[in-house]
Amino acid sequence: MKPRPPSAPSSSTAPARLRPHLARLTSFLIVFAVGYSLGLLSSSTRPSPKPSQTVIRPHAAHFTAGSTAVPASNSTGAAAAAAGSYPRSPPDDLFRFREECGEPIPSDAVLPALLEKLFDGESPYASFPPPHTAALLHPAAARPRGWGSTGAVFAELIESVRPDTIVELGAFLGASALHMAAVAKNLSLSPAILCIDDFRGWPGFRDRFRRDVPPPRHGDALLLPQFMANVAVAGADAAARVLPLPFSTASALTALCEWGVYADLIEVDAGHDFHSAWADINLAWAVLRPGGVMFGHDYFTSADDRGVRRAVTLFAKVKGLTVRPHGQHWVLSTKPHGHDDGR
């Protein structure tokens, strides 16, 4: 008679030291099995494409007339063909700026209209500066520090255009504005000079202009009161003609367009990256009177990947204009006549 094989050991025969862990181990295995099963069920069975096989399918409007969209099922060769034809032309939104503005108001009504709309009809220089503000500012300078602010291009353009209204984008401490006011006065001209700037500066500007700007106060850069102090010390004539518009360039130019405020001469010297310069140039073009001239600074600077130069060059190409370098500045050809200039 064969001996009976030994039966499998039961849990009661397990070593005593493992018994307290059996329930915990069993629970862990059950949770792991359930989680693994759910992961398999929720995962996609379609393999992800390799980076070299990814097909970019831009909107059809971004292609040129001779190009076609590529189906997702096409091979890598088709994807390469799509990449070769995209984008030959930028999206339409890149060129979608307002071109028609409000009915132009007479040039001699520009300053009164803006004072009424923005300052309740009172000059911002009235009783300026109050004592508590004056104590925070640097000594005012009729010729504040700037860069490229007294170039020959200013006198040349003011003499040739003989503007009734000048718009400046990017005023900082007022160097360019006060120089233009002095040049115009020498030519027996008295244009309104509208200085558009948010007067907040830019990150790090104090490192370069620490001796020219007041220290910040409660988060306020104090550039607007310093600008106004510089204008005020230049004389009553300057204060009567140089008006700060303390807003972003986009919002201020949009408002001027709606109100029918046009300029004969526009200087663009605000943001130096491509997108800022591109927007400023396009928005300012809408408020430039036919026969007027737009110019600006930093055409040759390498900062921001030559953003200003790229924006100016593209704009001139789109509008069929010519760009004339003038020292550190750029000058666009005269805006063509098309309608009443509102003088």
UniProtKB/TrEMBL annotation:
Pfam families in UniProt: Methyltransf_24
Cross-referenced SUPFAM superfamilies: S-adenosyl-L-methionine-dependent methyltransferases
InterPro entries per record: SAM-dependent_MTases_sf (IPR029063)
Gene3D superfamilies named among the record's database cross-references: Vaccinia Virus protein VP39
PANTHER family: S-ADENOSYL-L-METHIONINE-DEPENDENT METHYLTRANSFERASES SUPERFAMILY PROTEIN
Descriptive protein name: Uncharacterized protein
